[in-house]
Amino acid sequence: MTRKQWLWPVAAIALVLTGCNVGHANEGEPKKLRLGHIQSESNAWHKGSLKFAELVHEKTGGSVKVEVYPSSTLGADRDLVEGMQIGSVDFALVAGVMSNFYEPYSILELPYLFEDLNHLEEFVYGEDGKRLQEETLEATGVRGLEFWLRGARQLTTNKLVESPEDLRGVKIRVPNIEASVEGWQAMGASPTPMNFGEVYSSLQTGVIDAQENPIEFTASARIHEVQDYLVMTDHVFGYVQLLMSDKTYQELTEDEQQAVMEAAEEARMYQNEIVSAEEESALQMMLDEGVEQIEVDQEPFRESVQRVNERLADKYGRELYDTIQGMRE
């Protein structure tokens, strides 16, 4: 055998062994997926996200690792949804901004739509909530995993507000959602859509005078440092939705998909349990640090938005609106 002849089998064996070594090195490396949200690390959303990541790792036997990016690190709400559509973001926590991608969500943002938190739960955890998620997947390519509860949205201001008349001339930050913009206009304010990351500095410099969010959300962002009053309007009983890119979902094995769904449900229960307790402590912290709590008669606020609600119900989903209203009976 010539030198050239015996070198060929040696080279072939070396190539096979090299291939085996590469495969072994890659084997066991987890699929790294990214979850983004706009909240700070002290917020219940972040704690729920970390629990979700922990559960996914546990339930997939380490084959999937979820990395959590808080504080708009992966972008604002709209950026996160667009990222999930193209597959550059795997999971996100997003609330009302989904109405910009699938219009029926606008109904859920109508002020005074839900009577209380129980009314909201009856909807989102029932068949109608599941149907909404299925329709969203078909329309957007984004898969709804779970609805997480939030505290009621309350108004914070640097002006004493006790009735809709007191809102005249008040520049209020709202999310970029038609129901929020038109609802606050109907209540007398001058709404300004703005990313939440800009709110603190805008309040500090006087670009806006007020904002509205759940108490725990407001407190974790230290908004109370630049606001004098917490006005208990209870104008929206809301949610945040744990969403997933369907592109990512389809790349997982069936076992991994099932693990993700189970982890999402358990993380939802975990987050819902802590959000109420954290809201109580957040309220006390804001009061201790000088914010004045204002109790108001909510009925005049409720009455002022009814025409807007009826018009937007016709525009975005009269059937959904009537279904939710019917749950009051």
Give a description of the structure.
This protein is an alpha/beta fold and 329 residues long. The chain has one domain (29-326): D-Maltodextrin-Binding Protein, domain 2. Helices cover 50% and strands 20% of the residues. The chain has 14 helices and nine strands. The chain has helices at residues 3-26, 44-59, 77-86, 105-108, 117-124, 127-140, 178-186, 199-205, 215-220, 246-251, 254-288, 299-304, 306-316, 318-326, and strands at 31-36, 64-69, 91-94, 142-157, 171-174, 190-193, 210-214, 229-245, 292-295. α2 (44-59) runs antiparallel to α11 (254-288) and α13 (306-316) packs across α14 (318-326). The longest helix is centred in the C-terminal third of the chain and has 35 residues, at 254-288. It is globular and about 65 Å long. The N and C termini lie far apart (93 Å). One of its GO terms (biological process) is transmembrane transport. Keywords: Coiled coil, Signal, Transport. Belongs to the bacterial solute-binding protein 7 family.
State the low-pLDDT regions, or none: 2-25
CATH C-level category = Alpha Beta
Structural class per helix/strand content? alpha/beta
- SSE string, helices as H and strands as E: HEHEHEHHHEEHEHEHEHHEHHH
Q: What's the domain count?
A: 1
Taking Cα atoms only, what radius of gyration do you get, to the nearest Å?
A: 24 Å
Main sheet attributes: strand count, strand direction, barrel closure? 9 strands, mixed
Shape: globular
Q: Total number of β-strand segments? A: 9
The number of helical elements comes to: 14
